[in-house]
Amino acid sequence: MLEYKTIEGEYFTEWEINKSRFLTYIKHVETEIEAQEFISSIKKKHFDARHNCSAYIIGERSEIQKSSDDGEPSGTAGAPMLEVLKKNELSDIVVVVTRYFGGIKLGAGGLIRAYGKSVTLGLDVSTIIKKSIFNCYKLDLNYDLLGSFENYLHQKEIRIQNKDYSDIVSFTLLLAQNDSENILKDITNLSAGRIKIEELEPVYLNIPLNTK
Q1: Where does the UPF0029 domain lie (predicted)?
Q2: Taking a C-beta distance cutoff of 8 angstroms, is the pair 73, 107 a contact?
Q3: Secondary structure of the chain: what % helix, strand, coil (to 5)?
Q4: In the beta sheet, which residues pair with residue 208?
Q5: Domains in the chain and their CATH numbers?
Q6: In whole angstroms, what is the distance from residue 86 CA to residue 61 CA?
């Protein structure tokens, strides 16, 4: 598992230059099939547009990167769109820019700038998140330790995924990787080793990097 940035949800923006309208559709996806289906849906929606250019990056290592000029001169649409996604270090994301031609040619340089700007405008309204890895632990303790244990969790602002109160108390905690070792040492010292700690599979948490 690796940490990486992506977006949350789906967004739309529109702008115009020299009578050409640029409509940007941007969405979080997790597979190449999802990305292709989204592109197809936008092409179907705007079947009357001259161009529906696209770019997407998939995978925690950005393993899959593809783009399409969809009839624009080679390298003037899909490539600059993909470059904006890469510059922002985003993955699991697809973007489609639909262009309604206004009768005035923009030239190669103008197209590159226009398609790049279209993606930037889409990202400006998007909620960008970091997929952060948290270590996950299940802790079992007796009720006589509960008060001091909960105080410690509150002081350290530790994320609690689950609580269970039965014969004993069970907490499932999510700890940042850099903090895990020290926190577990604190808990062991706090309880004189009486809290049972079981390591579970790490999980991803979505941490917002901007607010919209």
Answers
A1: 140-194
A2: no
A3: 30, 40, 25
A4: 129
A5: 4-125 (3.30.230.30), 132-208 (3.30.70.240)
A6: 12
